[in-house]
Amino acid sequence: MIFNKDTAEKTAELLLQINAIKLNPENPFTWASGWKSPIYCDNRLILSFPSIRNYVRDEFAKNIEKQFGKPDVIAGVATGAIGIGILVAESLGLPFVYVRPEAKKHGRQNQVEGFLQKGQNVVVVEDLISTGNSSLLAVEALRNEGANIKGMAAIFTYGFGVAQENFKNANIDLFTLSNYENLLDLAVQKQYITEDQQSTLQEWSESPSTWLQEK
């Protein structure tokens, strides 16, 4: 669920402007999973544009507090959400921790890095939601440390049905600055894509794991 329509449209426009999101239905990208995709999203680029990263930081800070109340800690999911998570924590005057994909094999063998006390209220910041699996593994790691997860806030989601089901099953409320639906509407409006290309992009979102394989 998006925080609000205005933020969703503005965020989508900014991501397109800096090529953090690329739309190329004629020459699809190949994801690490092997899926063919007409869209590629790299929200790490946001950090290289001060005015845009500040916008994202401010929207996160404002809407996190409005939606979840002020938490005790902000947690970022490594590695994509560490940078923006720190900025959000700084804006809210809160401690920050980050969650590795898995525990280290040496030293203290931490998966959650930083100081976290049992019972603290945590909002998790993520850069991108696809299936939600990796994001929810971070939630599980935080819960294992005794954290009370208030919810998750992400920059962008593809809006896959499997992700919605995964978050529902994990009992985690997910809110995003923007999403696939608003992105496509904005992309047509601003002539980044044609209406025919929009149809292709919508078709992909309905069955991303098998798109092109069925043809």
UniProtKB/TrEMBL annotation:
Residues 59-156 form the Phosphoribosyltransferase domain. CDD domains: PRTases_typeI (cd06223). The chain crosses the membrane at residues 73-99. It holds the Pfam family Pribosyltran. One of its GO terms (biological process) is 'de novo' UMP biosynthetic process. InterPro entries: OPRT, Or_phspho_trans_dom, PRTase-like, PRTase_dom. Keywords: Glycosyltransferase, Magnesium, Membrane, Pyrimidine biosynthesis, Transferase, Transmembrane, Transmembrane helix. Coiled coil: none annotated. 5-phospho-alpha-D-ribose 1-diphosphate binds at R100, K104, H106, E126, D127, L128, I129, S130, T131, G132, N133, S134. It is an enzyme of class 2 (transferase). GO terms for molecular function: magnesium ion binding; orotate phosphoribosyltransferase activity. It catalyses: orotidine 5'-phosphate + diphosphate = orotate + 5-phospho-alpha-D-ribose 1-diphosphate. PANTHER family: OROTATE PHOSPHORIBOSYLTRANSFERASE (PTHR19278), URIDINE 5'-MONOPHOSPHATE SYNTHASE (PTHR19278:SF9). Homodimer. Belongs to the purine/pyrimidine phosphoribosyltransferase family. PyrE subfamily. This is Orotate phosphoribosyltransferase. It comes from Flavobacterium hercynium. The gene is pyrE.
